[in-house]
Specification:
The chain has helices at residues 4-11, 21-38, 65-80, 88-118, 127-155, 159-180, 185-207, 240-257, 260-263, 266-292, 295-304, 318-350, 356-377, and strands spanning 209-216, 228-233, 307-309. It is mainly alpha-helical. The chain has a domain at 1-6 and 183-386: SecY subunit domain (Preprotein translocase SecY subunit). It comes from Pseudellipsoidion edaphicum.
Length: 386
């Protein structure tokens, strides 16, 4: 919504800006190759012979979770504090600064926990070695955050999702396909149908929009004027809700395992985790999506351009109407995503060899990134006017 004014003007114009997608996609894949290189750099003082090939931490071991969690925390904090008449640009700059500070703090906290987790496989467990390992993890996390921000600004796509795709999702998908090649015919059929279902779901939730019919003040006096449609994605937060929920669920599982009652009742523990995951996905879907769209700014620009949303009640404020409608939309998208995760849990319980639940987020991110590249780099996802 940064270029909202130009987007509105584009609704009334038949001309579309020409782009050179090939040079942009080559540059993006060059960045991806660089990320792949960074993801292969080993951490110091780790005896990798003690670790399986599928679980070997690297320089970028922290991933994008620090910036995702920081974005959510800052968004929640700014949504509950009193609103001010601060300039939009200053407000945006302030929020970005807060996200970077909180990301750094979270990176430090996660790094300390990672050092403790990796203690059994460290070749040296002195204060200096632990400090160097922790610093390496923190630096890797901050480098990934910087690259993610740069991708977002340069290519107008989700830098976090792209970074996650090149650093871990590709490896997860390759490993999943390799494992699937050893399945029997029935499991291969179920696996194929599941992949098709996930691809269809991702396409639906990425392409679907909620549209608001709008008219300018001059058009409203003309009965022959056609309304234009102002589109909003139903899930601008992409799959960050799932990524955030999974990170908190893993922490919760550690806490559940220490409760004697739950440790002796794996069925109750599993049910509790599934319910917790479902509600976290729905809640995070709202906040991750809200983070991408500033309804206050959109409402102000509509008023500045003398545009009116036709569906809202005459006495209702534009901002209030947009917030209510977008909230319902984002929560509905989270509900759909949560149901898909529950379905994956169900299939996983009957066919554990498929490991569907463990790889769902990677599949969603992969398909989502491909669709995002199509929309943004090749300019194929432009909203249509009515």
């Amino acid at each position: 919504m940064k270029n909202f004014s130009s987007s509105i003007k584009g609704l009334f114009s038949s001309q579309r800006p020409r782009k050179s997608p090939y040079s942009r996609i080559i540059s993006l894949f060059a960045v991806g190759a660089f990320l792949r290189l960074l993801s292969k750099i080993p951490l110091p003082f780790i005896d990798y012979s003690l670790l399986p090939l599928s679980n070997r931490p690297c320089f970028l071991a922290l991933g994008i979770l620090p910036i995702v969690q920081a974005s959510l925390l800052v968004q929640v904090f700014n949504s509950i504090k009193p609103k001010t008449d601060e300039d939009d640009f200053d407000k945006y700059q302030k929020i970005q600064k807060q996200i970077k500070i909180v990301s750094t703090i979270i990176s430090v906290i996660i790094s300390i926990n990672q050092v403790r987790t990796l203690a059994p496989v460290m070749s040296s467990y002195t204060f200096i070695s632990k400090s160097m390992l922790g610093v390496s993890l923190i630096v890797g996390g901050l480098v990934l955050i910087w690259i993610s921000d740069w991708i977002s600004e340069t290519f107008s796509i989700s830098g976090s999702v792209v970074a996650l795709t090149f650093t871990s999702v590709i490896d997860d998908v390759i490993r999943l396909i390799s494992e699937a090649s050893n399945f029997n015919f029935n499991l291969k059929l179920i696996f194929t149908l599941y992949i098709i279902a996930v691809a269809a779901f991702t396409t639906f939730i990425s392409k679907s929009t909620i549209e608001f019919p709008i008219l300018s003040s001059k058009q409203s006096y003309s009965e022959q004027s056609k309304t234009s449609l102002l589109p909003f994605a139903i899930n601008p937060g992409a799959v960050m809700a799932l990524v955030s929920a999974e990170s908190l669920v893993r922490i919760s599982q550690l806490g559940f395992s220490k409760i004697s009652f739950l440790s002796f009742n794996p069925l109750i523990s599993s049910l509790g985790i599934s319910i917790l995951r479902f509600f976290l996905i729905v809640i995070f879907s709202y906040y991750c999506s809200k983070l991408q769209v500033d309804s206050d700014k959109v409402a102000k620009e509509l008023i500045t351009m003398n545009m009116t949303i036709l569906r809202k009640s005459p006495g209702q404020e534009t901002q209030s109407y947009l917030e209510d409608e977008l909230k319902k939309t984002y929560l509905s998208a989270g509900l759909l995503l949560g149901l898909l995760v529950l379905f994956s849990d169900l299939v996983d319980s009957y066919y554990p060899a498929l490991s569907l639940k463990a790889n769902l987020s990677s599949l969603l991110i992969l398909f989502g990134t491909m669709l995002d590249l199509e929309d943004r780099l090749f300019d194929l996802g432009i909203g249509k006017s009515g």
